[in-house]
Amino acid sequence: MRKSGRKLMSAALAAAMTLSLAACGSQSADTTTAAQTEAATTAAAAEAETTVQETAEEETEAAAGENQQADIVVIGAGGAGMTAAIQAVQDGATDVVVLEKMPITGGNTTRSTGGLNAAGTSYQKADNIEDSIELFVEDTMKGGKELNDKELVTVMAENSAAAVDWVNEIGGDLSVVGMFGGASVKRIHRPTDTSAVGPMLVKALNDKAAELEIPVLLETTAEKILVDDSGKVCGVTAVNKAGETFTIDCTAVVLATGGFGANSDMVVSYKPDLAGFCTTNHGGATGDGITMAGELGAAFVDMEQIQTHPTVNPDTQTMYTEGVRGNGAILVNKEGRRFVDELETRDVVSAAILEQTDGQCYLVFDQAVRESLAAIESYIKAGIVTEADTPEALGEAIGIDGAALAETLKTYAGYQAAGKDEEFERDSMELPLDQPKYYAALCAPAIHHTMGGVKIDTKTQVLKEDGSPIPGLFAAGEVTGGVHGANRLGGNAVTDIVVFGRIAGSMAEDYVASNGGHTEAEITAETDGKGAVPAVDGNYKDGVYEGTGKGNNGDITVEVTVEGGNIVSVTLKEHGETAGIYEAAEKGVTEAVIINQSAEVDGVAGATNTSNGIMEAVAAALEGAK
């Protein structure tokens, strides 16, 4: 029997959300892990309802051992997890909760810069692009060296056009079609302004989840998936920000924790030759879902297949989208020469770069390419692109032979005019690269995507070694294996998370409907409407002050208001920070500044550079308030 309970304070999806959780009675079924079956020991919950105190002072964390309740628990608030949660609710689910260990949603999806590959879309048809499901499957299988699970690939391709429509229906923007490495035709769908796809998608997912009132428990780490004596999923144990362990009883779990590209030990255990490589992954991509699924006897596939992205700034780990090359850029080594077909698959291009001097190269493009792709502006703002008026001057600026670079560009322009690359047989040469200014960005390969993971079927059911499903456990996104084989094509990851995230959400909802039915939500999202208040005296001069600091994508300018000697507000006035990332830093850092009346506060994990930039800007502003 369920009962209402005390309010659980947690970071939530929207800027000022808190989470209200009501306790429920323990399930009658016993819960087990793969290692040991344990009898349920939770005491019967009291029948009487407890009064919910609305004041912030009386809001408390749910007590350890006090079970919560949901029909579906989604572990991971990245692209796949948020997609699954939304689709489940759209299909009729009434009690869904998302757990996310990081202080922000998005995961690696936020860092996705390319787009979503899809075949047979209305946008392709409008551009007279001839594509097909069969060609999409063929390209993906070829790119994956035929190691892919063809059934999964086919499902992805067949549902790709609908994925584009779905993203647009929930408020996203995928309307421009371009060329990417490994594709036979223009297939990758990107935002209208050609900006990075990830921030756009994460914002659309966040907004839709908020609209549907799907609770997202941030800084809440899932530790174990529980199953009953019959092997069916029946709960999840998790740890909140305060370090307290609690259990959510549930009927189904969607595992969407992402890959393990940020776990160097795990990476090296499967592929030793990647020791010492940097990564493009966010800090939360540590393979937690792999561990939890393994405890339940899940099968794994392609674990040693780990992809490097060829064009990553070795100093900042900023990943340059493949769209830069797709729109015309070339790669040159430190001798000023091309050395590869720039649109080859990622593994081929990465291997070619590693054979060059220092294992590095330069991404070179002209003004026309810059103007064709908005994503380039963030690289320029970040100060990682060198520019010059001529190829010779560009070469001198980056320390390579300018004459050789000029000759390389002249030769390439000739190939482009003739429609044939005599050296490396590059098929798509969008532009001649002869329009000043000229630009160069240093790059080297970095760990990017882990193709291996838990084994799933086309219904996203997690499978055991004998091929049987673990009842009630579904998975989607980078935590799974089989879709991409030995090498993932650029643009397929976003297709993967949307297509299989939607399937996982639908299948989890179907499973719940067939195994006890829907229940009323007890974990709900509420806006508290309260702002931060000073905990100490600031002793500053009243007034409004501005300051500037260095963020992830350039300068951040803030406005600090002091009233009665205390900082009462901090507002970001100008910045170029990444949507889907900066919001958490904006909320977390500015509130901490007001509470502590100081610019020296803790940053927000996952948004470190933005956090530091805000703190630097506040400190500069406060110089005038002393």
Q: Can you lay out the helices and strands and say which pair or pack?
A:
Elements: E1 17-21, E2 31-32, E3 37-38, E4 68-69, E5 72-75, H1 79-90, E6 96-99, E7 116-117, H2 122-126, H3 133-143, H4 150-158, H5 160-169, E8 176-178, E9 188-190, H6 197-211, E10 216-217, E11 221-227, E12 233-239, E13 245-249, E14 252-255, H7 264-270, H8 288-295, E15 300-301, E16 306-312, H9 322-326, E17 330-332, H10 346-354, E18 361-366, H11 367-372, H12 375-381, E19 386-388, H13 391-398, H14 402-418, E20 438-450, E21 453-455, E22 461-463, E23 469-475, E24 480-481, H15 492-514, E25 523-527, E26 543-551, E27 554-563, E28 566-574, H16 582-596, H17 608-622
Parallel strand pairs: 4-13, 5-6, 5-14, 6-10, 14-23, 21-24
Antiparallel strand pairs: 1-25, 2-3, 7-9, 8-9, 11-12, 12-13, 15-21, 16-20, 17-18, 18-20, 19-20, 22-23, 26-27, 27-28
Helix pairs in contact: 1-6, 1-15, 3-4, 13-14, 16-17
Quote the distance from N terminus to C terminus: 58 Å
Please estimate the helix content.
Answer: 25-40%
The portion of residues forming beta strands comes to 15-25%
Gyration radius, to the nearest Å?
Answer: 25 Å
Uncertain segments: 1-64, 526-530
Tell the overall outline.
globular
Provide a count of the helices: 17
Largest sheet composition? 6 strands, mixed
> What's the β-strand tally?
28
Structural class: alpha+beta
Mean pLDDT: 88
- In spatial order, strands of the major sheet run 10-6-5-14-23-22
